[in-house]
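Format notes (please read before filing issues)

Several people have asked whether sequences and structure tokens are stored in separate files. They are not. Every record keeps both together, in the order shown below: the sequence lines, then the token lines. Line labels are part of the format and must not be stripped during preprocessing.
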Amino acid sequence: MKIDLHVHAKERSSCSMASEKEHIEAAIKYGLDAIVFTDHDKLVPIDHIRELNEMYSPFKIYGGIEIRMRDTGEDILVIGLQDKILEEKKWVYTELYKFVREHEGYIALAHPYRYENKIKVKIEEYIPDAIEIHSTNIGKDDSERIERLAGRLNTNLLGNSDAHNCVDIGIFYNELEYEPKNEKELVKLLKDGKYKIGCCEDRIKVFNEEKKRRETLIKELIAERKTREDYHKLTGNWEGDFDRVAMGKSYLI
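Then the structure lines:
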């Protein structure tokens, strides 16, 4: 079973360019069997998840959440919990970690080292179930650093799309050893590491060609002493692209 655990739909994530329908239909087209909607600080209502599963069966849709830590800005994925407190509270990592553990959910660090070469939460003391090593928001120049971190902590790695556009969904995915019967079993499978990371190499090549063009433009703007705001005004693209290139990192995956 191929599953993408990190997807944003524009119904709940304002930064997303694709709807639930567009993401799901693209995921089916690209050969996935399931996705998890992990919108920014927003849960998918349980009844709506049920409706989507009925509509697209046998394809599976699960609900999760990506929560930004109020003190550090790190982003954390949570799967397997539907408590409204997840989207209502302003979390710090230690509190969120303890809450997820107490309620038998799944917790993972999303796109580490995205803008800095350090992790700004107490990850050594509070080890997550997994750390993302691949996504459209993790440059391959950080892969070795992420792998070392996961090895030191003896925790699992994940590959996801972090798709905000349906053309990216499933570019990386996790292939489970078997199909879980429910969300609780999905969480157990993930915690036990009973999966392998997969990818679509042809789509990665296309993605990187576009990123090379974008990074070339950003480097030219930096040489002209232009700012992230100038980049956004010129292209309409997200300023974060500029920030990563400015610190010497790449978005090539």
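For reference, the curators noted about this record: The beta strands are 2-7, 34-37, 60-68, 75-79, 106-109, 130-134, 156-159, 172-176, 195-199. The chain has two domains: 2-199, 204-246.
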